[in-house]
């Protein structure tokens, strides 16, 4: 038996591209009914469960009174208020694109309560509400004890009230027949079903207990009305959704299997942790954190942050690349940033200075030990590869520092205050040739210098060359640059070109020199102190002495 249900099927878009749930959900459920095969929906009690149902491929979510009550640690007996159940149903409708069918128990009172309920659930984006013909307060259908029914007329009145209260024609009102649960027999179940359809029900849910599907199959066989029938094969679980569909059921609700699966899995996991005294044994059988983040929508959060979060003006990230190529630097393996001076590694000190300059997103080349402990992400050890791997999607500014340099926060703040597309730190404090370290990276500037003073007029000085011999240098490159998105794209392209040209081991200074040579305006932020290189054993001794305040 197939049914076609007329519906508006409209979609309304938010500015951000999400659809308005109130109309969307109901229309989608109507569309699901129009497709061939059974409409299969899964019970859930929170947005995470709803997302799991969505990912598994269900057609909808059943906002289960049993699951929500159990998740609150109370019996499914109208202990929770309508508002509590509604809040959960709403949160699930917000979290998924699937339609949510809400189990609304007995409608939380009489016809007046049902009308209020329908308006509330409809406004919450619920696709369908199901109410059952039991007195308030109800008791879960599988709990032995009082399984009572209200008179047919009284419940038909509630269905008519629900239909009168809805404001959009797509909302489905499902009338749930509990006659088989209460032991009143098949004839009563069919009589009630017919009365509820006459009162306006969009579908009937025939509920049953016992492990045989036979009563449900009989009901389906004897159901003649062109109104869909919904079934809940909780105890009669051997029958498949397709078999039920072939017998005439249109919607099959797997009402509480998710809850029961999680109770079993969590119980086993907790027992194993106490038994083993650690979690190693159960790690393969529990979801990794990456799955949790994925289900939470962390990727979307990060996208949104990139688009909308203007942290104090502009987003800034930093990447610490390998320093100058001196082999072997300081006689220790790996990057100088791994060296501990006066209790802290160079990496920790550089990360600390960056953070005090308000840069939080920091990555460091992979040959630096202890990056994760310092809250720093790792990037490839090779400078060109590291810069190439960062990509050009980031819309904020990028600070690039050499990992063999120590900075105070001050020069980094000065650098970040310079708004040009490409700016580098240069030390103008050395009086002239012959006073710089032999491995210093000399630069020439378009500012004028005399007697240790430099002046540039009303602009920001620019580099005219980078990597010049000491005798020609006006100043020394101090191992840090800041780049706008545009500037970083240029540096990125220079790194990619170096790699393509078979020179993968470029240094930051060499890549910046490529930009200067290509005509990019590279501005100089002039400093005279607040940084120290760590390229030689002498450098290390001097800096250690300074930092431990015991220099001779
Ligand atoms: C629920 O999930 O709350 C239901 C279905 O009403 S059942 O528990 O199977 O009765
Ligand atoms: Mg229920």
Category by helix and strand content: alpha/beta
Number of helical regions: 19
Q: How much helical structure, as a percent, in the residues?
A: 25-40%
Strand fraction: 15-25%
Q: For the report, how would you describe the main beta sheet? A: 9 strands, mixed
Shape: elongated
Radius of gyration in whole Å, from Cα?
35 Å
Small molecules bound in the structure, each named once: sulfopyruvate, magnesium ion
Distance between the termini: 96 Å
Number of strands: 23
Low-confidence stretches: 1-20
Multimeric state: single chain
What's the mean pLDDT score? 88
Write a concise synopsis of the structure shown.
By secondary structure, this protein is α/β, with parallel strands linked by helices. 37% of the residues lie in helices and 18% in strands.
Structural description of this entry:
With 552 residues, this protein is α/β, with parallel strands linked by helices. Strands 9, 12, 13, 14, 16, 17, 20, 21 and 22 form a 9-stranded mixed β-sheet that branches. It has an 8-stranded parallel β-barrel with strand order 1-2-3-4-5-6-7-8, surrounded by 9 helices. Strands 10-11 form a two-stranded antiparallel ribbon. Residues 1-20 have low confidence and may be disordered. Residues 65-66, 76, 103, 105 line the site of magnesium ion.
């Amino acid at each position: 038996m197939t049914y076609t249900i007329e519906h508006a099927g409209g979609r309304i878009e938010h500015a951000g591209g999400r659809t308005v749930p109130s109309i969307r959900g109901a229309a989608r459920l109507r569309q699901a009914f129009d497709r061939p095969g059974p409409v299969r929906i899964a019970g859930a009690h929170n947005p995470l469960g709803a997302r799991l149902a969505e990912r598994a491929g269900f057609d909808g979510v059943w906002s289960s009174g049993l699951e929500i009550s159990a998740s609150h640690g109370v019996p499914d007996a109208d202990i929770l208020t309508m508002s509590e159940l509604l809040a959960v149903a709403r949160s699930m409708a917000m979290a998924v694109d699937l339609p949510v069918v809400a189990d609304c128990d007995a409608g939380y009172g009489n016809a007046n309560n049902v009308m209020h309920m329908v308006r509330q659930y409809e406004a919450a984006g619920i696709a369908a509400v199901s109410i059952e013909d039991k007195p308030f307060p109800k008791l879960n259908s599988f709990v032995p004890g009082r399984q009572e029914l209200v008179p047919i007329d009284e419940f038909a009145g509630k269905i008519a009230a629900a239909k009168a209260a809805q404001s959009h024609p797509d909302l489905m009102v499902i009338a749930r027949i509990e006659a088989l649960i209460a032991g009143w027999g098949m004839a009563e179940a069919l009589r009630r079903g017919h009365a509820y359809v006459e009162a306006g029900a969009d579908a009937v849910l025939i509920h049953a207990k016992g492990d045989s599907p036979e009563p449900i199959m009989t009901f389906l066989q004897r159901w003649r009305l062109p109104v869909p029938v919904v079934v809940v094969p909780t105890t009669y679980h051997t029958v498949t959704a397709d078999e039920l569909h072939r017998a005439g059921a249109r919607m099959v609700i797997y009402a509480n299997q998710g809850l029961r699966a999680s109770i079993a899995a969590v119980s086993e996991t907790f027992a194993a942790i106490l038994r083993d005294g650690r979690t190693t044994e159960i790690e393969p059988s529990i979801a990794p954190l990456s799955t949790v983040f994925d289900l939470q929508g962390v990727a979307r959060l990060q996208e949104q942050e990139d688009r909308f979060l203007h942290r104090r003006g502009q987003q800034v990230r930093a990447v610490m690349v390998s320093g100058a190529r001196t082999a072997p630097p300081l006689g220790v393996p790996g990057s100088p940033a791994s060296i501990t001076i006066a209790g802290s590694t160079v990496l920790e000190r550089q990360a600390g200075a960056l953070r005090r300059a308000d840069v939080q997103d920091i990555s460091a080349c992979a040959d630096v030990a202890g990056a994760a402990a310092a809250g720093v992400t790792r990037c490839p050890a090779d400078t060109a590869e590291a810069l190439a791997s960062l990509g050009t999607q980031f819309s904020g500014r990028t600070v690039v520092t050499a990992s063999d340099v120590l900075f105070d926060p001050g020069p980094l703040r000065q650098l970040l205050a310079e708004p040009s597309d490409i700016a580098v730190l240069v030390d103008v404090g050395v009086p002239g040739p012959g006073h710089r370290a032999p491995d210093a990276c000399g630069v020439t500037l378009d500012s004028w210098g005399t007697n240790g003073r430099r002046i540039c007029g009303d602009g920001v000085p620019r580099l005219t060359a980078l990597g010049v011999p000491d005798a020609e240098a006006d100043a020394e490159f101090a191992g840090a640059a800041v780049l706008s998105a545009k500037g970083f794209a240029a540096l990125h392209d220079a790194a990619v070109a170096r790699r393509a040209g078979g020179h993968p081991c470029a240094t930051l200074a060499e890549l910046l020199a490529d930009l200067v040579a290509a005509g990019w305006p590279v501005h100089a932020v002039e400093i005279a102190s607040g940084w120290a290189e760590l390229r030689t054993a002498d450098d290390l001794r001097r800096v250690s002495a300074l930092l431990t305040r015991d220099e001779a």
